[in-house]
Structure formats: C-alpha cells, structure tokens
Amino acid sequence: MAQLIELPHVGESVVEGTIGKWLKQPGDRVERYDPLVEVITDKVTMEVPSPVTGELLRIIAQEGETVPMGAPIAEVDDGGGPATAPEQSPTPAAASPTPTSYLITDARPVGPTGGSALEALAAEEAAQVAPAPTATPAAPRPAPAAAVAETPAPPAGSGANRLSPAVRRLAQEHNLDINLIAGTGLGGRVTRNDVLRYLESPPASAPVAEPAGAAGADEERVPLTPVRRMIADAMVRSVSLIPHAWSMVEVDITGLAGLRNRERDRFRQREGVNLTYLPFAIKAVASALKENPTLNASWGEDHIALKRRINLGIAVAAPAGLVVPVIHDADRLSIAGLAHAIADRSGRARAGSLRLEDVQGGTFTVNNTGALGSILGGPIINHPQAGILTTEAVQQRPVVINDAIAIRWMMNVCLSFDHRINDGAAAGAFLQAVKSRLEAMDDDTPIY
After folding, report:
1. What is the pTM (predicted TM-score) of this model?
2. Spatial CA neighbour of 380 closest among 365, 398, 395
3. 429: which residues sit within 8 A by CB, 6+ positions away?
4. Catalytic: which of 265, 329, 423, 442?
5. Quick one: 237 and 367 in the same domain?
6. For residue 11, what pLDDT is reported?
7. Which is the catalytic residue, given 244, 328, 340, 419?
C-alpha cells in the first residue's frame, strides 16, 4: 500500500525546510529508519529517516525545493496491499479522479503530528491537483467531515487565506498586500521567504537595469547554496524585525589571563580539550543573565517572554556556513564543563553531525569573534532572542591605574540588544555585570 512521507515538524520556530539531497531514488528499497533525505532548515541540516519499510515510488518535493513542515515529500509502497478506503461507496467528492496517494489516510507521521494532520494535508493536496467534477449528482449524500477539506483551492491571488501566523504578521508589519506576492510553497502558499524576497526586490515599475557586461569577464557569479540562502534570510529577518542597539565595554582580564596561562597545559593533558577564554566568558554571561533576565528573553508582540532556563548559543564558523549550537542550562556547568561542551558542539558543527536538539531552545548567543582577530563588532541578533554578545581579541594595552600607566591584558565585550525589550540602562547593567565577573577571575577562581 502506498504511504505518504511528510516532512517532520522539528520545532515551533522551524516552519519550513529545503530539500538538500535525496539519499534514495524511485525504485530503491528502503528500510525503516534508513536515511531517506537530507533536509536543510535555518537551524540545522539533518537526515530524515524513512518511517516505513518498502519501495520508494516517487519523490514529491524535489532537491532545492522549500516546503512547509508537515507537507508530503515522497511516497513509499510498504507492500501491504491496496488501500481499502477507495473500495467503499464513493461520495461525490471522492468520485473525482484523484491520484491514489492522496487518498491514503493511515500513513504514519514522521514527526509529532497525528494522523488527522496528515489526512488534512492529503485532502488539501487533493483539492489542489484534482480537476473539478464535470457533473453534479442529482441527490448527493452528505459528505463526511474529511471531505470538507476537498473544496476547491482558492484561486490565484487569494493566498492570504492560507498564510501561517508568522507570515501573516510579517506582511501586516510591512503593510503588504499579500495578493501581490507570488507564492512558492505547497499549492502556491506564500511562505516567509517569499515575503522577505518581495521586501528586498525593487518595485516592478522601476526595474534595475543590469550594466552591460555584468556577467562577463569582470565578475564571477557563485550560485547560492541552500545553507547560504537560509543564513541570508535569517539575517534579513533579524534586522527587519528587531530594532538593534549596540554597546561596548573594555574589560581588564589580567587576572583571568594569568589563571588561564597557568592551567592551560595541565588542563589539556587532563581533559583532552583546550582551555580558551570562551568558557570563562560564558560563565560570566550565564551568571549576569540571572541578574538581568530581560536579556534572556524574547519579544511576543503583546508581551515579553522571560526565559526560565539559560541556554546559550555559541556561533561556530562551519564549512557550510554559520551554525549556532546550544549549550543547555549553561549556568549549571563549571568552567571545565563549559570547555567540554564548547569543544563538543564546535567539533560536531564543523563535522556536520549536529543533532536537532543541539540547535533548539537557545535563549541568548555568545560569539567569540576575537578568535578571528576582531577588536570591535556589531553582531546581528539571533532572532527571536533579545541579545547577542561578542568577546573580542585579548590584547596587551597600556591603561591608567591609580594615576599610573600599566600594561594590562584587555578585551572588549560588545552587545547588540533588542531595543523593544531593553533600554540602554538595562543593557549597560548587563554589560557591567559581565565585566565585573570577568575582572574578578584570578588564580583563586575554581575551574571545576
């Protein structure tokens, strides 16, 4: 019997995914839990396993196509025989020529959706592809509840009736007529990426003329990978929806530098990972967030959501692009525990082996741009968080202490914050809390 395979739901903030690569082709034998397709989201690239054993009949969502979570992406024959539902007395709606795959109502869900969600998706897909019936029965029987979803899909230009809440809110914030936006989602659905691309594009009445020879010898055009496009969309969404503000403090980490230099070699021999400045900074940030909870928050339109857990994302430059794995409950870990967590998340991010749970639930982000030699940065907030902090390069600099010039180990700490949630005073208090904790670290600071 044919089984529809749908794109699994992977979290509230992930509403769509891009098909990166099909690992099986039509006609191939697939076993249950075998990797079936590689899917790219704005958080992680993951392999989706097959929920059934059988033969892959057809691929519905092609490579490079972006589809909403829960949408059918493939069809597998599990060898269980024909479906029994079509053999029953058909209703007028079921009498129309509809592909068999869209009549399946007992396909097992890949993600946390129930059977009813799959039936609704199948019925909606059937309504979009089935031709209108040529004749109306003289005495139609009452249609069952499932047939209600098979009313004809709205005509082109009426995609506003099928918007997700996030897309509807984005359109309202920019006063957009959704009927003017071409939808690329399932059945012409307008997706968030469609709205963002519409915002970035110039008006149709004023096309931008491309200079002669632009695609010639003077430049090289590099096609966008799905990961790079999603990173771009995430950055545009952040700066479009969040009013960024920025602040910076200088931190004297001379005591911390002495502690780290003393323990570095012994720590590597004992623990097998490097002792960098980052775990110390994350320890200070986690403690400061407890005192300043409005930085560990998100904007909810009619409320501010204060997060009870402190889950810190760390920005990692992976080969495919920027990835932000999360250290959950970072405030409960020692400096040694944080060093291990950083090494684990960074290593698996660069190897492309992060799990979905590794990138979910982040409440604040820390980026160690100092490792790249940066001394000042204006980072973009990881939407929908309230802030992001960068630790910059550690340098020896002359500073004035008690009317005398001294050479000290200094580091700049930069903060971008959501000005809807925090004003400068709250952001400044948070930065001062981070600064005071880092400057208090010395040889007596416990690592374990």
Report:
1. 0.64
2. 365
3. 291, 292
4. 423
5. no
6. 60
7. 419
